[in-house]
Amino acid sequence: MENFWDEISDKLKDAFDKAEDRSKKDINLIKNIPAMLSFLGELEGDELLLWLDQARKIKKRRDPKFPPINGDFYDTRSHLTDEEKVILANVRKFMLEEIEPIATEYWLKGEFPFQIIDKMKKLNIIGLTYDKSYGGQGHSNLLEGMIGEEIARVDVSTCTFFGVHSGLALNSIYICGSEEQKREFIPPMIRMEKIGAFGLTEPDVGSAASMGLKTTCKREGDTWTINGEKKWIGNATFADYIIIWAKDVDDHMVKGFIVDRTTNGLTTEKIEDKMSLRIVQNALIKLENVKVKEERRLQNANTFKDTAKVLKMTRAGVAWQAVGCARGAYEHTLQYTMDRRQFDRPIAGFQMTQDLLAQMLSQLTAMQCLTTRLSQLHDLGVMSDEQASLAKVFCTVGCRTITSMSRELMGANGILISNKVARFLGDAEALYSYEGTKQINSLVLGRAITGLSAFV
Ligand SMILES: Cc1cc2nc3c(=O)[nH]c(=O)nc-3n(C[C@H](O)[C@H](O)[C@H](O)COP(=O)(O)OP(=O)(O)OC[C@H]3O[C@@H](n4cnc5c(N)ncnc54)[C@H](O)[C@@H]3O)c2cc1C
Questions:
Q1: Which label site among 74, 141, 152, 420 has the fewest CB atoms less than 10 Å from its CB?
Q2: What tens digit of pLDDT does each residue of 105-132 get?
Q3: Residue having the nearest C-alpha atom to atom 4 of ligand 1
């Protein structure tokens, strides 16, 4: 044992003598190693094991599961109340402890980690902005947006699961449901005892959903019969309720229904082999003579304009997701560039690396400021469709740019899923396309700018 320590100590001294060109900090570190080794060499067996055990614990504490880098450069968090900051801190803790360790594994498997639903329930973050009488907490939309950012910062799929349930499905009932429907369906969904999905898109109808759905509904007495297909529906393989949007064959208007997933005639088939959001369970839904009672028809959804009210909210949510995805990629990359050495120095020290990092942080900061203001407008009750569309486009385009720069800065390691940035890069693609593609949201904006519709 003694020889072993002496040998290592000599080798280090030797390396130290040769390392004349190293920085002072490195030299001091190397200088300490022989002293440390000689201390370890004097310990008895049990003492040595105890010491190593302690050292391992310290290392575990210090080993960051997520780099301790603050990607909120303009301190947008300062707009939250103290109570809201605590809620956000709990979400961060949950994401780091429960999701971060499993995200890559489940992403690769393309499976949903069902065990997280029970853990997520305890966070109490569904329906945060809703009125207390429905089980909500009356918090700000800004907090809800920042929660989305915080979740997506670690895993965008988890954020999409959250967004489909609490944004698309729950908001459909909150915005378009009758008072009785809200009281019946919202509280169990807020408690996550029931999970929701939202079925608008169809195999042949994506961007043009406002121009006419192929899925039909027909009323006879108190019963509606729904026929058609829905594609890409998130959470649909396991959700309790799926909001199905269909065109009434009699008045040609779009109507929404709260449909039990287990209803006869409704089948779901998981969409496999995605290169984005692989944890999200997207499904193709077939509806063959599905019978739904009138009491399950969303009583305040009478035209596609009502569906669009739901989409406005969730477009804002996707803009926040893009901020989180970009932030996660930026923070991982910054840490990587500090750790990765080439030409005998951290790559973060090269001018061209810093140029890319500066571009990434500038873009990210602009996105954060934009979404923060958007949510403030939402809280004031004046957020418009066009403002939500602008944020959705700006942030998802920025997210694509930042995640791609991240990958570039990580060299070959950037294409390894285990290095996380590749996961963010893939996930950015779905954000770019869902809730209205870049083109569709730009057309919404273009119409507002010019007063001329250029959709068709
Ligand atoms: C991961 C994921 C999850 C999703 N989850 C859901 C969900 O839960 N529920 C749901 O209902 N849907 C969901 N979607 C569907 C999503 O909303 C649609 O993919 C989106 O609306 C675009 O439709 P599309 O894919 O059919 O593309 P298309 O409409 O076929 O568009 C293809 C291309 O043509 C362009 N284009 C179309 N029309 C025009 C035009 N007038 N001018 C210029 N360009 C145009 C588009 O911008 C796009 O680039 C999800 C999609 C993904 C990828």
A1: 74
A2: 999 999 999 999 999 999 999 999 999 9
A3: 232
